[in-house]
User: Fold this.
Amino acid sequence: MQHVCTGNNTVSAVSVLPLIDLNLSDINCIFSTLVFIQQQAEKLSITTPCVTFDQPLWVKAVDIILANRMNIVCRLGGFHTIMSFLGSIGMVMAGSGISDAFETCYGSSTVQQMLSGKQVSRAVRGHLLLASALRLKLLQFILPSRSTSHDIPLDLPDRLTEPDIQLLHDAY
Assistant:
Protein backbone atom coordinates (compact mmCIF):
# COMPACT_ATOMS: atom_id res chain seq x y z
CA MET A 1 0.00 0.00 0.00
CA GLN A 2 2.91 2.37 0.61
CA HIS A 3 3.86 2.22 -3.06
CA VAL A 4 0.31 2.91 -4.25
CA CYS A 5 -0.71 5.69 -1.87
CA THR A 6 0.93 9.10 -1.85
CA GLY A 7 0.39 12.10 0.39
CA ASN A 8 -1.58 12.26 3.63
CA ASN A 9 -4.08 9.39 3.68
CA THR A 10 -6.00 9.68 6.92
CA VAL A 11 -9.49 8.94 5.55
CA SER A 12 -10.34 5.38 4.69
CA ALA A 13 -13.39 4.13 2.87
CA VAL A 14 -15.07 0.79 2.60
CA SER A 15 -16.90 -0.01 -0.61
CA VAL A 16 -18.58 -3.09 -1.94
CA LEU A 17 -17.01 -4.42 -5.10
CA PRO A 18 -19.11 -6.10 -7.78
CA LEU A 19 -19.86 -9.79 -7.31
CA ILE A 20 -19.33 -12.24 -10.14
CA ASP A 21 -22.25 -14.63 -9.94
CA LEU A 22 -20.52 -17.65 -11.44
CA ASN A 23 -19.01 -20.90 -10.22
CA LEU A 24 -15.56 -20.17 -8.74
CA SER A 25 -13.82 -22.77 -10.88
CA ASP A 26 -15.50 -21.56 -14.10
CA ILE A 27 -12.97 -20.14 -16.56
CA ASN A 28 -15.27 -17.18 -17.28
CA CYS A 29 -15.32 -16.30 -13.58
CA ILE A 30 -11.53 -16.45 -13.31
CA PHE A 31 -11.09 -14.44 -16.52
CA SER A 32 -13.58 -11.79 -15.33
CA THR A 33 -11.73 -11.53 -12.03
CA LEU A 34 -8.37 -11.14 -13.77
CA VAL A 35 -9.75 -8.45 -16.11
CA PHE A 36 -11.19 -6.59 -13.10
CA ILE A 37 -7.84 -6.79 -11.31
CA GLN A 38 -6.06 -5.47 -14.38
CA GLN A 39 -8.52 -2.56 -14.69
CA GLN A 40 -8.15 -1.66 -11.00
CA ALA A 41 -4.37 -1.81 -11.32
CA GLU A 42 -4.46 0.59 -14.26
CA LYS A 43 -6.60 3.03 -12.22
CA LEU A 44 -4.05 2.88 -9.38
CA SER A 45 -1.03 3.09 -11.71
CA ILE A 46 0.19 -0.36 -10.74
CA THR A 47 2.16 -1.71 -13.68
CA THR A 48 2.03 -5.39 -12.68
CA PRO A 49 -0.63 -6.48 -10.19
CA CYS A 50 -0.15 -9.62 -8.14
CA VAL A 51 -2.97 -12.02 -7.31
CA THR A 52 -2.98 -15.16 -5.18
CA PHE A 53 -5.05 -18.29 -5.84
CA ASP A 54 -5.26 -21.71 -4.26
CA GLN A 55 -3.84 -24.55 -6.34
CA PRO A 56 -6.81 -25.66 -8.49
CA LEU A 57 -7.70 -22.07 -9.44
CA TRP A 58 -4.04 -21.08 -9.77
CA VAL A 59 -3.47 -23.58 -12.58
CA LYS A 60 -6.45 -22.21 -14.52
CA ALA A 61 -5.51 -18.58 -13.82
CA VAL A 62 -1.94 -19.09 -15.06
CA ASP A 63 -3.27 -20.66 -18.26
CA ILE A 64 -5.63 -17.71 -18.80
CA ILE A 65 -2.89 -15.15 -18.09
CA LEU A 66 -0.49 -16.82 -20.53
CA ALA A 67 -3.13 -17.30 -23.26
CA ASN A 68 -4.27 -13.66 -23.08
CA ARG A 69 -0.82 -12.19 -22.43
CA MET A 70 -2.05 -10.35 -19.36
CA ASN A 71 0.43 -8.39 -17.28
CA ILE A 72 -0.49 -10.05 -13.97
CA VAL A 73 1.67 -12.07 -11.59
CA CYS A 74 -0.24 -15.08 -10.35
CA ARG A 75 1.04 -16.55 -7.09
CA LEU A 76 0.21 -19.85 -5.50
CA GLY A 77 -1.37 -19.46 -2.06
CA GLY A 78 0.87 -19.89 0.98
CA PHE A 79 -0.59 -23.18 2.18
CA HIS A 80 -0.39 -24.79 -1.26
CA THR A 81 3.15 -23.45 -1.69
CA ILE A 82 4.19 -25.22 1.52
CA MET A 83 2.42 -28.41 0.40
CA SER A 84 4.22 -28.29 -2.95
CA PHE A 85 7.57 -27.65 -1.27
CA LEU A 86 7.13 -30.53 1.20
CA GLY A 87 6.06 -32.84 -1.63
CA SER A 88 9.12 -31.90 -3.68
CA ILE A 89 11.41 -32.60 -0.71
CA GLY A 90 9.74 -36.00 -0.32
CA MET A 91 10.24 -36.72 -4.03
CA VAL A 92 13.89 -35.62 -4.14
CA MET A 93 14.83 -37.35 -0.89
CA ALA A 94 13.08 -40.64 -1.67
CA GLY A 95 15.39 -43.53 -0.87
CA SER A 96 17.71 -41.41 1.28
CA GLY A 97 16.46 -42.80 4.58
CA ILE A 98 14.22 -39.84 5.35
CA SER A 99 11.19 -42.11 5.63
CA ASP A 100 13.05 -44.35 8.07
CA ALA A 101 13.96 -41.32 10.17
CA PHE A 102 10.35 -40.08 10.18
CA GLU A 103 9.05 -43.55 11.07
CA THR A 104 10.82 -43.31 14.44
CA CYS A 105 8.14 -40.75 15.39
CA TYR A 106 5.24 -41.39 12.99
CA GLY A 107 3.48 -44.39 11.47
CA SER A 108 4.37 -45.56 7.97
CA SER A 109 1.10 -44.41 6.35
CA THR A 110 1.46 -40.99 7.97
CA VAL A 111 5.07 -40.76 6.73
CA GLN A 112 3.93 -41.49 3.17
CA GLN A 113 1.41 -38.65 3.41
CA MET A 114 4.00 -36.32 4.96
CA LEU A 115 6.45 -36.97 2.12
CA SER A 116 3.76 -36.40 -0.51
CA GLY A 117 2.96 -32.93 0.83
CA LYS A 118 -0.03 -33.82 2.96
CA GLN A 119 -0.17 -33.78 6.77
CA VAL A 120 1.48 -30.35 6.63
CA SER A 121 1.77 -29.64 10.36
CA ARG A 122 3.26 -33.08 11.06
CA ALA A 123 5.56 -32.79 8.05
CA VAL A 124 6.89 -29.40 9.12
CA ARG A 125 7.45 -30.68 12.67
CA GLY A 126 9.13 -33.83 11.33
CA HIS A 127 11.45 -31.84 9.04
CA LEU A 128 12.41 -29.53 11.93
CA LEU A 129 13.17 -32.54 14.14
CA LEU A 130 15.18 -34.20 11.38
CA ALA A 131 17.15 -31.01 10.67
CA SER A 132 17.97 -30.67 14.38
CA ALA A 133 19.08 -34.30 14.62
CA LEU A 134 21.29 -33.97 11.53
CA ARG A 135 22.77 -30.72 12.86
CA LEU A 136 23.65 -32.47 16.13
CA LYS A 137 25.29 -35.37 14.29
CA LEU A 138 27.29 -32.91 12.18
CA LEU A 139 28.43 -30.98 15.25
CA GLN A 140 29.42 -34.23 17.00
CA PHE A 141 31.51 -35.09 13.96
CA ILE A 142 33.35 -31.78 13.47
CA LEU A 143 33.75 -30.61 17.07
CA PRO A 144 36.57 -32.06 19.17
CA SER A 145 35.31 -34.85 21.37
CA ARG A 146 35.25 -34.15 25.08
CA SER A 147 33.73 -37.48 25.94
CA THR A 148 35.19 -40.96 26.03
CA SER A 149 32.78 -42.21 23.37
CA HIS A 150 34.46 -44.49 20.85
CA ASP A 151 31.79 -44.06 18.15
CA ILE A 152 33.91 -41.63 16.13
CA PRO A 153 37.71 -41.80 15.93
CA LEU A 154 39.37 -38.87 17.72
CA ASP A 155 42.16 -38.38 15.18
CA LEU A 156 40.03 -37.32 12.21
CA PRO A 157 41.64 -34.50 10.19
CA ASP A 158 38.24 -32.91 9.51
CA ARG A 159 37.61 -32.07 13.15
CA LEU A 160 37.76 -28.47 14.26
CA THR A 161 40.67 -27.46 16.46
CA GLU A 162 40.38 -25.17 19.47
CA PRO A 163 41.70 -22.15 17.47
CA ASP A 164 39.09 -22.87 14.78
CA ILE A 165 36.35 -22.95 17.39
CA GLN A 166 37.64 -19.69 18.91
CA LEU A 167 37.57 -18.03 15.47
CA LEU A 168 33.98 -19.19 14.94
CA HIS A 169 33.07 -17.99 18.41
CA ASP A 170 34.62 -14.56 17.77
CA ALA A 171 32.87 -14.27 14.40
CA TYR A 172 29.54 -15.22 16.00
